[in-house]
Amino acid sequence: MPTTTQDPSVSIGSINAQRVEGALAQIGPRWTTWSTMVLTQGDHPMRVRDVAARLPFLDEQVVFKRLNTMRVGGLVHRDLDPRREALYRLSERGESLAPVHRTMAAWHRTHLPVGRMAEAERIEDTLDRLRRRHTTAVIQILDEAGPMRYVDIAERAGLGHGTTSHRLARLQTDGLVTRTGQRFGDPYVLTDAGQALGSVYASVERWSEPLVAPRKSSAPRTAAATRTHHGVPLGANDARTAAALRRSAVVPTALFSHAPQPQPRVPAAVTAESAPNRAR
After folding, report:
1. What is the pLDDT at residue 9?
2. Per-residue model confidence (pLDDT) at position 269
3. Beta-carbon-side half-sphere exposure of residue 72 (alpha carbons within 13 Å)
């Protein structure tokens, strides 16, 4: 197994798993990252149809639903123009996702050899691997205890054997966990990609802190709502996405590029050729 290139100061075991899972549930739904990046690059409030024009692989109704979910979650503000049309802009909370996105894209690029992929797709693919319930707890247990049999993981996590087995199977598919042998009952262990998640979890936890910070108000306090590889192959749809990106003759921007640095605004022509996989 290759040597893990992980910041030793970042410990998976030190994170608050419940807080992290609550934050991932908020920022993890499909198309949230794409919508956030479009609003970031728009540099002015945008109508639903303006956002949809930058994401031509999505129906306008899908964009409308995603923006409204983001508004309810505090990531987006909605205003009305003089003609009473809704205009959407990122809240301060939404804008503060930029460091989280950069960390996720860097982790994905380093540890998941899935070929060429748009930056927004890398981030959403990372979120898809991490946002499922109990994933953080299982990864944290394996990071702290080393190789463990699934029955021991279930006991330590307080989960049923069936739930634990299902979660471990998904983590294996996602390239975050592997088994030390081929026999039934052989222990599970984190892959290099799983061990390197410390910086990702730390960035999510830092972002989540305002969600649980005490309110400086005389009003009664209310608790913040929380919810408690190697060689990952490209699926058919992912291969189609990568092929579309390779065909683009336009220099890609931060939303679609493979470079981590901010770039100019995304032309619609680029987005049209960079349609990601809807199925995942």
Report:
1. 56
2. 45
3. 7
8 Å CB contact between 194 and 176: yes
The contacts of residue 137 (CB under 8 Å, 6+ apart) are 17, 21, 157
Q: How distant is the alpha carbon of residue 230 from its chain centre?
A: 19
Contacts (Cβ under 8 Å, ≥6 apart) of 2: 192
Spell out the residues 6+ positions from residue 37 whose beta carbon is closer than 8 angstroms to its own.
101, 119, 120, 254, 255
Q: What is the pLDDT of residue 262?
A: 40
CB-based burial label for 87 (10 Å; 0-12, 13-18, 19+) = middle
**How far is the CA of 89 from the CAs of 30, 68, 79, 95, 100, in angstroms?**
19, 11, 8, 10, 19
Using a pLDDT cut of 90, give the percent of the chain over it: 59
Reported as a single tens digit per residue, the pLDDT across 81-98 is 778 889 999 999 999 999
CA distance 237 to 77: 33
pTM above 0.90, yes or no: no
Give the least confident one: 11-15, 26-30, 35-39: 11-15
Q: Are 28 and 128 in contact (CB under 8 A)?
A: yes
Rounded average pLDDT over 233-248? 37
Closest Cα partner for 275 from 25, 44, 47, 62?
62
Residue 84 makes CB contacts below 8 A (sequence gap 6+) with none
User: Cα–Cα–Cα angle for 99, 237, 166, nearest 5°?
Assistant: 75
Name the DSSP letter for residue 14.
G
